[in-house]
Amino acid sequence: MTARSMETGVSATGRAVAKTGVWARIWQQDGPGYLFLLPWLIGFFGLTVGPMITSLYLSFTNFDLLTTPDWVGAANYTRMFTNDPKFAAAMRVTFFFVIFSVPLKLAFALAVAMLLNRGLKGLPLYRAVFYLPSLLGGSVAIAILWRQLFAGDGLVNQFLANFGIIGPSWISNPNYSLWTLIILSVWQFGSPMIIFLAGLRQIPQDMYEAASLDGASKWRQFWKITLPLLTPVVFFNAIVQTIDAFKSFTPAFVISGGTGQPINSTLFYTLYLYQEAFGFFRMGYASALAWFLLLMIAAFTAFSFLTSKYWVHYDD
Amino acid sequence: MSLRISRRQLMQGAAALAAFGATGLHSAFAQDARLRLIFWGGQARADRTFAVADLYSETHAGTAIEGEFLSWADYWPKLATQTAGGNAPDIVQMDYRYIGEYARRGTLAPLDGYVGERLNLDAFDADQLSNGTIDGQLYGISLGVAAGATVYNATALAEAGIEIAPMAWTYDDLLAKGREFAAATGGAMALSPDGSGIELLFENWLRQRGKALYADGEPAFEAADITQWFELWAELRAAGAIVSPDEQAVDTGALETSPLVRGKAAMNFTTSNQLVAYQTLVQDALGIAIYPAIAPGSTGGHYRNSSQYFSISARSAAADTAAEFIDFFVNTPEAAALLGVERGVPASSTMREAVTAELDERSQMAVKYISDLGAIAGPVPPTPPPAAGEIEVALKTKSQEVAFGAQSPADAGPQFFQQVVDTLGRAR
């Protein structure tokens, strides 16, 4: 009895020593590294992974913010596709916005980048000026400004009045309200423009010289040299901007006063999600909406990567 | 001085915020007890409320009140989030559309235990007490009696040479005078906003026809009613009596976005207590009238509502102090004098007598309106079902679809009715 307990005692101590040894070695090797990572790790697990897992769980419940959630299985996901006309409206608005705002913004950014790439004097100044809207554009202040610009008696209509045109109240007319938001998005072309500008600088000048000698027009040079060599940058910009467009929230929220009106014409997906969660207390359903948005963005990104080998040229 | 922050002030700049925060936090930490108070409303309401809070802090040494106010649309998301986080303020302002939802989910404290001791409700009107009672328990103390009312621009009407009978005008008048008014102003200003999306007005119209919005958690009207409602407004729209759909869509619910304040319409369909707030935003003299009658002499549409309540959060650690503050708020003549009738006419008869003589002209008009309603008013409807707030939004959206011509009244009626049935079914 005594011997046995002594034996266990010894072996336990032995194991404990070995354990301390392993931990000590790990600590010596990587400890300071993890210590420095700690702020990020706490943030990543506490503020990103934790809430994500919680919201995944909540998406299968009827959580209403005020009482304890009950498991409802896939009912939230079923409702999304079978019995929610507002979800369909939000999808239409969001896809319309993505399909028009992203290509327009990229085309505009590329055009300005090419203008700026012609060795202008004072280039840093122009670059800063054109980049500025990218920094400001998503803000509440700009959204309020936009509301004023496109209101019935706003600046835009005052300008149009000079030509005898009586404009409608752009932001509160369902035919135009989404377009004012698309214009607001296109106006923030600065950050893709800077990336395009860097991409244009990478294209070797001798290619253009050779093409000019062969008599290729500027137009032809653009399609045969500039654009193909720029495709990696286009690819990058398209993905980043599309994800941004899917997630767009603030402008629609501020311009429509959080309602997505008129007639749900500015009811962005994220705005609908917000309404369901905090306006109508359906946090469970809103969590399901959030996860579906994540899946949509992931599917779009995967699709882009899969098709990229057919149109993106990495030939350096 | 207590800590108080509004969205507007936040936007007005970091400097103002820092100043507010610094003074507020300083005094809050120096005090023994803190009460947190949250309400929706504009600057006029905030000024009056904070004046009472300061008065309370002066007379009750050691209690500081941290007030916060937001617009109606921002208020509910914020309150829901705070409640979910177990961090709801001690005293919350409640609306009749939401109080049932919050009370039945156990987030509000029943107040019956305080009545007679910390809360003296002896002089309270019986209908105001029953408005705040859910499933037999008292959850909300009425902050004022209000009724649906049309606030109109008397100056603009006089300039156009148009008169309405404030306590007897009808929808036929709205059509006829609306035409005249549009002719007189050359279309620059319409007589009326587009009321087809205003839930209170629709409810009033239904009640005049002997129906109601809800009964026992079901719609108490039919698809044909809503179709006729949209047809009525389509006729007014065609006659130029009301503002264009895009002018109406600018209205997000904040007073300053309403067609009345923006000078696009000569009236707005609101509640009687709002007359005071509208007058602070409009230069012209405002008057008050009933919602239009469906026929001369029609009654039963209006009712004496509680414009809002104060409730105590179920998890408040300072519930006793909160009850004392509410008692101070509704039962002290000094507080009543500061508050006036901005939240409606006081629900306590002694306070009503105390304030009425002191009131300015607009406030007196609002008080007189309530007493003039008399036989025009009907009984108070039961507490609306959960999801009443969602249906209010849905009516606004559907009314826009009709106004912009995306749907005919005949299609919109049955569709909206189905939407109401679905929404109520989901909320049960």
The geometry of chain B reads as: globular
The first-level CATH class of the largest domain in chain B is given as Alpha Beta
- Which outline of chain A best applies? globular
CATH class of the largest domain in chain A: Mainly Alpha
CATH superfamily of the largest domain in chain A: MetI-like
Q: Which chains make the largest contact? A: A-B, 29 and 35 residues
Characterize the biggest β-sheet of chain A: none
Architecture per CATH nomenclature, i.e. the level-2 architecture of the largest domain in chain A: Orthogonal Bundle
| Ends distance of chain A | 76 Å
Instruction: Give the low-confidence spans of chain A.
Output: 1-14
CATH-defined architecture of the largest domain in chain B: 3-Layer(aba) Sandwich
Report the average pLDDT across residues of chain A: 82
Total beta strands of chain B: 15
**Helix proportion range of chain A:** over 70%
Number of strands of chain A: 0
Strand portion of chain B: 5-15%
Supply the helix-strand structural class of chain B.
alpha+beta
In the CATH hierarchy, the third-tier topology of the largest domain in chain B is known as D-Maltodextrin-Binding Protein, domain 2
